[in-house]
Amino acid sequence: MAADQPTVLVVEDELAQREVLxxxxxxEGFRVLKAENGEEALLLVEEDTPxxxxxxxxxxxxxxxxxxxxxxxxxxxxxxxxxxxxxRSEEVDKVRGLETGADDYVVKPYSVIELMARVRTQLRRVxxxxxxxxxxxxxxxxxxxxxxxxxxxxxLKLGPTEFRLLSTFMEKPGRVxxxxxxxxxxxxxxxxxxxxxxDVHIGRxxxxxxxxxxxxxxxxxxGAGYALG
Length: 229
Fold this sequence. Notes:
With 229 residues, this protein is an alpha/beta fold. It is 41% helix and 21% strand.
């Protein structure tokens, strides 16, 4: 599994629908988590926070609307985009879904191709580097497609790990990332790496970012981790 592979949680109680969605998302390059009901979805989000959630409205016990409401009221999960799937095509239902906090609303039966496009649109908001976009922070420019970084228009030499670290920081400037979160995002969950390795690569990133002068933009937050700016 690629470390910076974006993760989608599919919450769908119908097995056939769940498998079709999972197959197509994996073919598009996503890492897929699957839940067959609302309770399982909430547990999975706590254990392995996804980048995007595709959530069915009509589920037994805990409905998709209630799952959406709970996730959107928690500060730690509020920013995860949710695409609501529903057989309800009335405008009043769509409005209710969006007012509960859903970021998009797709009526069943849907086109899988269209749904993949909508997932990518949401991903562009939260993980722009994974869809080949150019990121900018002050005088630093990162081009995810060409894998080039410059500062004050001077090219910088970065190793692949430092590039992924910088991508993570530049997607959410100011956000404090713990060492464990950086390990998951940059190295991947399936690989065991000591948290001190993060400190080594942060040191290399700092050196690379200041190779032509300029202030070090990476901030150490004592007891919490690191942030850009």
